[in-house]
Amino acid sequence: MKKLLLLIAAVVFATTVSAQDKKLLEWGVEAGLNINSLSFNKDVLASSNRAGFFVGPKVKVNVPLLGFGLDGALIYSMNSAAYNDVTNNVEKSESFSYLEVPINLRYSFGLKALKIYAATGPQFNYCLSSENTLNDFFAIATGQGDMSRSTWGWNVGAGVELFSHLQVGVTYTIPISDSGNFEWSQLQNLAPNFKQKTIKVRLAYFF
Predict the structure, then answer these.
(1) Considering the domain boundaries, does residue 13 fall inside one?
(2) Which of 35, 42, 68, 108 is placed for a possible disulfide with 192 were both Cys, Cβ 3.0 to 4.6 Å?
(3) Under a CB-based contact definition with an 8 Å cutoff, are residues 182 and 145 in contact?
(4) Where would I find the H helices in the chain?
């Protein structure tokens, strides 16, 4: 009888730990739409919004009772960029692939079936595109430039969680570091830096 009670206690303990682990740590996958635009520090260049996509695995860490948690992901992202040299009337567009690593602090509230959440945190981006793709984007008639492969941003987002499995939201990435610069050899004191601003419409499913 003593062994049977110990066995039952062990099973109950294991089941409880398993349930807690599942609640504290959840794995999933997310995908969605990128809406990108370039922001220049000079008015000789202009840009418009361009669409892309992203996909990758995601992990969600929950803190019981408090409503706080952490979201982390490893995302493959395709961002399209375009600019118009208004001085020389030159237009250029290109698509760049990125590896993105966002880590966000999340706060959620509501019922189990439907929760509202807000999230914010840093994001690291690394450009995976080839040198030829980068050079082609900057190959304009009057000069040259350089794109930073590594950049940082800060995410601000919100959305809803359905039945603890489905997460739908929107995130705006505020650029912290410059994405690159253009340098004109024929014109003095003209080196426009640019940053890439991104809005993500995201859908995540947790198993």
Answers:
(1) no
(2) 42
(3) yes
(4) 2-24, 131-138
The H or E element containing residue 46 is strand 45-46
Among 164, 141, 190, 160, smallest CA distance to 62 is for: 164
pLDDT per residue as tens digits for the range 88-116: 677 778 889 999 999 999 999 988 889 99
CATH number for the domain harbouring residue 61: 2.40.160.20
Report if pTM > 0.90: no
CA neighbours closer than 13 Å in the CB half-sphere of residue 96: 28
Question: Does residue 86 sit within a domain?
Answer: yes
In a domain, 10, yes or no: no
CA pair distance 75, 19, nearest whole angstrom: 28
Q: Where are the beta strands (DSSP E) in 128-192?
A: 144-147, 150-162, 166-175, 180-183
Handedness of CA 183, 187, 190, 45 (dihedral sign): negative
pLDDT in the model for residue 88 = 66
The whole-angstrom separation of Cα 13 and Cα 81 is: 54
pLDDT score, position 87: 65
Q: Which structure tokens are listed for 39? A: 């922001």
The count of other CB atoms within 10 Å of the CB of residue 54 is 21
What confidence score (pLDDT) does residue 142 get? 47
- Residue 3, in any domain of the structure: no
Residues spanned by the domain of 181: 25-206
